[in-house]
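User: For a reading group we're discussing how well predicted structures match intuition. Take Calponin. Before you show the prediction, I'll give you the sequence so everyone sees exactly what went in.
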Amino acid sequence: MAARPKGYGLTAEVRGKIDGKYDGELAQQAMQFIEHYVPDSNVSGNSTSDAVAEKLKDGVVLCKLINAIEPGSIKKFNESKMAFKQMENIGKFLDAIDQYGVAKSDSFQTVDLYEKQNMPAVINAIHALGRKAQSKGCYGIGPKESQANKREFTEEQMRAGSNVIGLQMGSNKGASQAGQNFGKTRSIMD
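Assistant: Thanks. Here is the predicted 3D structure of Calponin, as structure tokens, for the group to look at:
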């Protein structure tokens, strides 16, 4: 991991805002979700940002998690302690949850976990995976994911709706601007 300065000014302000979003209770729920699928992971317990990052940093637990939810998602992952191999595992996990159906907006970047840059995003991604698993009939966490409610209208209903003026558009109650003059008119002289 690169040695990063603590930061001053705006950098420290941004770091403080990101750290302020971290919720230990949500992290604990995420760790219990992981432990449900990967019982030998020993991730539950201390749910501080540093402890969670340390347990998930190598990406092995995350790879085992997605393979337990969707078998065969990651064919091979590395258990090496080399930095680029660990970051490769995290990348494989991110690709696998994308294929599983987790929205890109709910994902995180590899450095968010590996360098502890944005741990709230990591916890959010695990919760998003839990919601997606729950929507597919597996054990999950968090609120139930919403379902699409596509509606079909007949041609007659569409024509009837085009004649209705919505209240958001406002109403001029029959008034027009015909004959209205404000101020002095502009005259063009040659």
